[in-house]
Amino acid sequence: MSDWKVIGIGNDHAAVEMKKEIQAYLEDKGFRVVNYGTDSTESCDYPLIGKAVGKAVASGEVDAGVLICGTGIGISISANKVKGVRAAVCSEPVTARLTKEHNNANIIAFGARIVGLEMAKAIVDAWLEAEYIGSGRHERRVAMIHEIEME
Ligand code: RB5
């Protein structure tokens, strides 16, 4: 379990209801949640939201992030353009756990059109409860990802 206290959440128009449910779920767990997403179902551009949450995570404004769009893909690709972000799209809890343990994922993403609410909660829980294995090959490989960013 991480010592995260503040989670940034972001979503586009495809994920308004799921964002609200996940925000409430995180707040019930005691997190402070900062909403960078839209609360409207009017079409909007997910890159702006992925970037906003990515920058909030990278700057330390929030400890970690949750991103939701239709698939989870566009919004996570956008966040991953911000240096220091390791956003992972997951559709089930095993990869959510492993991306924290191995990749130290600081943003979890999923698709509101792909997973149901209970699966989304299970993904969030697996990611929150896992610990980064910050030694050996995992530490070396995460450092290598950072080196790519710095090139
Ligand atoms: C919006 O229609 C959709 O393209 C977006 O939510 C997401 O799935 C993109 O990756």
Description:
The chain has 151 residues and is of the alpha/beta class. It has a single domain, classed as Sugar-phosphate isomerase, RpiB/LacA/LacB (Ribose 5-phosphate Isomerase B, Chain: A, 3-Layer(aba) Sandwich). Helix content is 48%, strand content 16%. It has helices spanning 16-28, 46-59, 73-79, 93-103, 117-129, 136-150; strands at residues 6-11, 32-35, 64-69, 87-89, 107-111. It has a 5-stranded parallel beta sheet, sandwiched between helices. α2 crosses α3 and α4 (93-103) runs parallel beside α5. The protein is globular, with a radius of gyration of 14 Å.
CATH topology tier name? Ribose 5-phosphate Isomerase B, Chain: A
Ligands, ions, cofactors:
D-ribose
Main sheet strand line-up? 2-1-3-5-4
Number of strands: 5
SSE order, one letter for each helix or strand: EHEHEHEHEHH
SSE layout and pairing:
Elements: E1 6-11, H1 16-28, E2 32-35, H2 46-59, E3 64-69, H3 73-79, E4 87-89, H4 93-103, E5 107-111, H5 117-129, H6 136-150
Parallel strand pairs: 1-2, 1-3, 3-5, 4-5
Helix pairs in contact: 2-3, 4-5
The chain binds D-ribose.
D-ribose (RB5) binds near residues 14, 46, 70 and 74.
Describe the structure using short key phrases.
151 residues; alpha/beta; Ribose 5-phosphate Isomerase B, Chain: A; 5-stranded parallel β-sheet; 5 strands; 48% helix; globular; binds D-ribose
Kindly summarize this structure in a few lines.
The protein has 151 residues and is an alpha/beta fold.
